[in-house]
């Protein structure tokens, strides 16, 4: 059996973008990076595990916040350079700002407008 990880086109830093989507609604919750270890552990542990470029280490989503992403499916795009994760967002908050999604700003009339509510104050999460 060939190594399924070899099919992924990793960038020069050994990373691939990973987009987390709500498995029921399809809403994009967040985007983060994965390395080979993060993707392997995500599949093994059945939860989203990313690679933090700023901390240079693995990041188990929800480790400090409790907002774990339970994995339902992993997909690789046609160019093999983007991963999507279909997840159940435990607690309903994916963003460190306390919102459901990191994509909460909409372009309107020349500016970015926040349109999604803060569900929980980040000071109460972290």
TrEMBL record:
<dbReference type="InterPro" id="IPR026660">
    <property type="entry name" value="PRA-CH"/>
</dbReference>
<comment type="function">
    <text>Catalyzes the hydrolysis of the adenine ring of phosphoribosyl-AMP.</text>
</comment>
<comment type="similarity">
    <text>In the N-terminal section; belongs to the PRA-CH family.</text>
</comment>
<comment type="pathway">
    <text>Amino-acid biosynthesis; L-histidine biosynthesis; L-histidine from 5-phospho-alpha-D-ribose 1-diphosphate: step 3/9.</text>
</comment>
<dbReference type="Pfam" id="PF01502">
    <property type="entry name" value="PRA-CH"/>
</dbReference>
<dbReference type="GO" id="GO:0000287">
    <property type="term" value="F:magnesium ion binding"/>
</dbReference>
<keyword id="KW-0028">Amino-acid biosynthesis</keyword>
<dbReference type="GO" id="GO:0000105">
    <property type="term" value="P:L-histidine biosynthetic process"/>
</dbReference>
<keyword id="KW-0460">Magnesium</keyword>
<feature type="binding site">
    <location>
        <position position="79"/>
    </location>
    <ligand>
        <name>Mg(2+)</name>
    </ligand>
</feature>
<protein>
    <recommendedName>
        <fullName>Phosphoribosyl-AMP cyclohydrolase</fullName>
        <ecNumber>3.5.4.19</ecNumber>
    </recommendedName>
</protein>
<feature type="binding site">
    <location>
        <position position="78"/>
    </location>
    <ligand>
        <name>Zn(2+)</name>
    </ligand>
</feature>
<keyword id="KW-0368">Histidine biosynthesis</keyword>
<feature type="binding site">
    <location>
        <position position="95"/>
    </location>
    <ligand>
        <name>Zn(2+)</name>
    </ligand>
</feature>
<comment type="pathway">
    <text>Amino-acid biosynthesis; L-histidine biosynthesis; L-histidine from 5-phospho-alpha-D-ribose 1-diphosphate: step 2/9.</text>
</comment>
<feature type="binding site">
    <location>
        <position position="81"/>
    </location>
    <ligand>
        <name>Mg(2+)</name>
    </ligand>
</feature>
<keyword id="KW-0963">Cytoplasm</keyword>
<comment type="subunit">
    <text>Homodimer.</text>
</comment>
<feature type="binding site">
    <location>
        <position position="77"/>
    </location>
    <ligand>
        <name>Mg(2+)</name>
    </ligand>
</feature>
<comment type="similarity">
    <text>In the C-terminal section; belongs to the PRA-PH family.</text>
</comment>
<dbReference type="InterPro" id="IPR038019">
    <property type="entry name" value="PRib_AMP_CycHydrolase_sf"/>
</dbReference>
<dbReference type="GO" id="GO:0004635">
    <property type="term" value="F:phosphoribosyl-AMP cyclohydrolase activity"/>
</dbReference>
<feature type="binding site">
    <location>
        <position position="102"/>
    </location>
    <ligand>
        <name>Zn(2+)</name>
    </ligand>
</feature>
<keyword id="KW-0479">Metal-binding</keyword>
<dbReference type="GO" id="GO:0004636">
    <property type="term" value="F:phosphoribosyl-ATP diphosphatase activity"/>
</dbReference>
<keyword id="KW-0378">Hydrolase</keyword>
<feature type="domain" description="Phosphoribosyl-AMP cyclohydrolase">
    <location>
        <begin position="30"/>
        <end position="104"/>
    </location>
</feature>
<dbReference type="InterPro" id="IPR002496">
    <property type="entry name" value="PRib_AMP_CycHydrolase_dom"/>
</dbReference>
<keyword id="KW-0862">Zinc</keyword>
<dbReference type="GO" id="GO:0008270">
    <property type="term" value="F:zinc ion binding"/>
</dbReference>
<dbReference type="GO" id="GO:0005737">
    <property type="term" value="C:cytoplasm"/>
</dbReference>
């Amino acid at each position: 059996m060939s190594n399924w990880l070899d099919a992924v086109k990793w960038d020069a830093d050994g990373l691939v973008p990973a987009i987390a989507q709500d498995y029921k609604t399809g809403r994009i919750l967040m985007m983060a990076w994965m390395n080979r270890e993060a993707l392997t552990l995500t599949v093994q542990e059945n939860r989203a595990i990313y690679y933090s470029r700023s901390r240079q280490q693995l990041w188990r989503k929800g480790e400090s916040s409790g907002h774990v992403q339970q994995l339902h499916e992993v997909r690789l795009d046609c160019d093999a350079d983007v991963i999507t994760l279909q997840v159940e967002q435990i607690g309903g908050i994916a963003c460190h700002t306390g919102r459901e999604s990191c994509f909460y700003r909409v372009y309107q009339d020349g500016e970015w407008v926040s349109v999604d509510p803060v569900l929980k104050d980040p000071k109460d999460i972290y």
